[in-house]
Structure formats: structure tokens, C-alpha cells
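**Backbone description:**
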Amino acid sequence: MSRIKLALEVVSDLRNLADSIESLVQVIETTNYESVETEEKLPTLEEVRHHLALLSQRGKQAEVKALITKYGVRKLSEIPKEKYPELLKDAEGIQ
């Protein structure tokens, strides 16, 4: 392969790379990364249940039950998962 042909292939590869980078920048510009970065990972039902079970084992069954009913439900599984961070924060006060 001649040097000129090889140089032309390199130029073509660089143009393709530049096009790919430009496409990536456009995707990044149109994506709202602020909301992605600020989203919290919600605790799972199992994590909340585990934390409340530990409190119950320490003799805080009445407090745990009162905490659950504070959210207007009879069972932990009825609490919406969006409320789990708030529930865990409330549970910290039982310690």
C-alpha cells in the first residue's frame, strides 16, 4: 500500500471519528444530566424491612408499629417506595 493511500485512509478515519464525537456531543447536549445526577437511589422494601426488624429486635416493636401507621397504612408493604427515605429518617429517631 502506498504512503499516499495510507495517509488518505487515516484522514478518512479521522473524519469518521470527528463525526462520531460530534454526534456524542449532540446527544449529551440534549440529555438532561442534572436530573440523573441528583436522583437518589431509593432504598428497597427489603432494606427498610431489615432496618425496622433490627429496631423491633431491640424491643421497639410499638415504636415501629406507630411509625408504619403514621404513614396511614397497616403494613410496611403498603407504604409507597418513594416514602422509604423519609421512613428511614423517621426510624433513626427511634434509636
Observations:
- The chain has five helices and no strands.
- The chain has two domains: 3-38, 45-92.
- The radius of gyration is 27 Å.
